[in-house]
């Protein structure tokens, strides 16, 4: 597997995150961090919770290994298998959407109990949720199309789909400004329709639809049942992990006005490096591992290289977030309705989140190993104590520490998840575990040494230059990133050299 796939996906995800960043800048400017903003962000994130459970977690990770295996045996049956999965998920997501519409009062009361105290906020949330939730149907079906494209080695279109959503929401914000809550909800539905249309016109994928018959379902019944057994394992694991987000939102609704929004904006910053690196790598890593799961040498080499590559980006990002988080939040969101208090709280949340970034990346890589070996039960087992840990610490911390306590709970649970997954690697994949290096001290030391000029550069620019906050931040990022990567080159870190030589996972 060549790094150019990773590079293309990273570029597309970067485009997605840039447009997402513009969207969030406008959200902060026009909506701020208040009761109505909290209501919209809840309604926005709820269908995205299910999207991550179905699309990014279960469907993609369980479907790809089975589809690749089926395609090797019978191409026609693999197309039939794809279409039956597509039809079944259309029915499932439609039923969930109807359920949420009919029982929206109970859903909001359960997941955002703090809204109950303000009847206007509660009613407003219900109105927006009825519009936004059908987005789940479109985005899940898009994920199934995208999984097939990824399995066939086509990564460009699936990785650029979220740009469409961001541009649609940006359009609503520009047109309606501070009164854009309802328009934003409808912009999600419009984007979902466009995304599905662009994928569905790919002739290579849709040509088998006319051959779908009931007989083909019974011929594929065993494989479909296998898929859903693994899917249920995976959905349980992914669901628990993603529910951690809503555990934070649940307690944030109890903390008070603006808490959900403050956590959201900090989440968006920490999600950028995670998506650019860990998600981009895992998209290309899973098909590679699935094809080579019988070759321990290839799997262990890919695992070790991926860990180092992720840490090359995770270490400096975490350090930078600890040192200049307030500058980042201020420059990106500190205007309009987003006041100084919101900046301070969001930046403090971001500092705490910085400690979780390496853990998130390691956990993601371990997940791909388990999925490639079709052991979908292991991420589930790891996620249960993670969820319980997060729930307990949120309950303990939220009253005294507020949103900072919720962020701290998340960090603790992430690292607990990493420890458990490493234990499962050792217990169930001993031959592989002997060949992998989750902590490579010599390479970690090189990365840490390269951080020294980066840290010096941050303090030097902050002390010497007295430009406005925008120019200072740009200088810090440009100069310090340059110093860091020059240091890595001088230290001759193998993975860094492989990256710019355009070779990876060979």
How would you describe what is shown here?
The chain is mainly alpha-helical and 506 residues long. The protein has helices at 3-31, 35-73, 75-102, 104-111, 119-132, 135-151, 156-176, 181-200, 203-206, 214-219, 221-255, 259-291, 296-333, 340-353, 357-372, 377-401, 403-428, 430-435, 441-464, 469-490, 494-500. Helix 14 (340-353) runs parallel beside helix 17 (403-428). It starts with a helix and ends in a 6-residue tail after the last helix. The mean pLDDT is 83.
Radius of gyration: 23 Å
Ends distance = 6 Å
Per DSSP E runs of 2 or more residues, the count of β-strands stands at: 0
Strand fraction: under 5%
Averaged pLDDT:
83
What structural category characterises the helix and strand content? mainly alpha
Apparent shape? globular
Largest sheet: none
Uncertain segments of ≥5 residues (pLDDT<50)? Answer: none
Oligomerization status of the protein chains:
single chain
> Secondary-structure element order, as H and E?
HHHHHHHHHHHHHHHHHHHHH
Helical amount: over 70%
Number of helical elements: 21
């Amino acid at each position: 597997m060549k790094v150019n796939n990773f590079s293309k996906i990273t570029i597309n995800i970067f485009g997605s995150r840039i447009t997402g960043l513009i969207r969030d800048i406008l959200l902060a400017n026009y909506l701020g961090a208040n009761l109505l903003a909290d209501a919209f962000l809840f309604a926005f994130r709820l269908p995205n919770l299910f999207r991550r459970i179905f699309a990014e977690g279960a469907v993609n990770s369980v479907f790809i290994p089975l589809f690749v295996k089926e395609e090797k045996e019978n191409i026609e049956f693999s197309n039939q298998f794809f279409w039956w999965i597509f039809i079944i998920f259309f029915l499932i997501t439609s039923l969930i959407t109807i359920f949420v519409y009919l029982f929206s009062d109970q859903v909001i009361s359960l997941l955002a109990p703090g809204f109950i105290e303000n009847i206007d906020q509660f009613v407003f949330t219900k109105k927006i949720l009825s519009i936004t939730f059908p987005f789940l149907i479109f985005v899940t079906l898009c994920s199934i199309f995208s999984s097939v494209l990824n399995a066939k080695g086509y990564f460009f279109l699936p990785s650029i789909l979220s740009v469409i959503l961001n541009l649609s929401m940006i359009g609503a914000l520009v047109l309606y400004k501070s009164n854009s809550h309802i328009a934003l909800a409808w912009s999600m539905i419009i984007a979902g329709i466009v995304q599905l249309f662009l994928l569905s016109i790919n002739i290579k994928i849709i040509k088998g639809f006319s051959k779908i018959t009931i007989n083909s379902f019974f011929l594929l019944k065993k494989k479909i049942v296998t898929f859903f057994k693994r899917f249920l394992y995976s959905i349980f694991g992914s669901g628990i992990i993603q529910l951690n987000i809503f555990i934070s939102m649940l307690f944030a609704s109890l903390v008070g006005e603006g808490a959900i929004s403050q956590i959201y904006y900090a989440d968006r910053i920490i999600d950028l490096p995670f998506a650019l690196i860990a998600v981009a790598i895992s998209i290309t890593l899973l098909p590679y591992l699935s094809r080579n799961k019988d070759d321990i040498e290839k799997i262990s080499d890919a695992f070790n290289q991926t860990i180092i590559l992720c840490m090359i980006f995770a270490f400096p990002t975490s350090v930078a977030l600890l040192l200049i988080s307030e500058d980042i939040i201020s420059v990106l969101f500190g205007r309009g309705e987003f006041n100084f208090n919101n900046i301070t709280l969001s930046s403090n949340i971001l500092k705490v989140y910085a400690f979780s970034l390496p853990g998130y990346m390691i956990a993601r890589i371990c997940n791909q190993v388990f999925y490639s070996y079709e052991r979908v039960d292991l991420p589930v087992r790891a996620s249960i104590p993670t969820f319980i840990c997060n729930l307990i610490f949120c309950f303990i911390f939220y009253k005294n520490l507020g949103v900072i306590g919720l962020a701290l709970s998340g960090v603790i649970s992430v690292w607990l998840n990493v420890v458990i997954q490493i234990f499962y690697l050792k217990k169930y994949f001993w031959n592989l575990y002997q060949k992998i290096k989750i902590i490579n001290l010599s390479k970690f030391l090189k990365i840490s040494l390269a951080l020294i000029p980066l840290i010096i550069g941050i303090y030097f620019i902050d002390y010497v230059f007295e430009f406005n906050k925008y120019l200072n931040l740009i200088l810090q990022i440009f100069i310090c990133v340059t110093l860091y990567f020059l240091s890595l080159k001088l230290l001759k870190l193998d993975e860094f050299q492989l990256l710019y030589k355009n070779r990876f996972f060979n």
